[in-house]
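Practice problem: predict the structure.
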Amino acid sequence: MDNINYEFRKGEVILVDKPLNWTSFDVVNKLRWRLSKKYGIKRFKVGHAGTLDPLATGLLIICTGKSTKLSESLTSEDKTYIGTILLGRTTPSYDLETEFNQDFETKHITEDQIFALAKSFEGAQKQTPPIFSAKKVDGKRAYKSARQGVAIDLKENDIFIHSFEIEAIRFPEVDFKITCSKGTYIRSIAYDFGRKLDSGGTLISLRRTASGDLLIEDAKSVDEWLKIIESKETLEEL
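Answer:
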């Protein structure tokens, strides 16, 4: 445990390494419950900057107290991710949230094509969010409509890919590192990556490693933050 005196009630920006299968709201609610109990405040102010899907791990920025006002500016920062694309298969959600629904040929794909395609993604472009996303359409989350089988029309977003590097190829799996603008759906990139190779693509792992200047190396687990909150090292109690 570090020796920093945190001012959670006044306002802190803390970095959490979000675990697999947790939603961003799960993390917020867990920390809020512990802070509310510690300080005797019924609705302790806690929020997050930049949502991570349940199947993604890594850097989640949590703001407490008056620092929740910083959420919007923190969300606008560029993000860096590492992950793995599975070529030759697709799912409706573009990741492993849903079952595989189509298989495609992959024998024609070469390593040179994979490296060249990654570079072609760099720069400004339009991207359509996946239907299994938290985007709101007519006041309703897209994923809720998708799970009910309701057809929805999602508008394209302007995004920017600063870099798209291929880290390793373990065919049919491709490891990558991407730095991109806010609002970029890596699941959609995985799907489009497979499609542009005349095949299919599914995102099978994703980890956020940076948001602006904030790094995953400086993050702590949910349990570590809970222990810090419980400790008597918070500045308000000194």
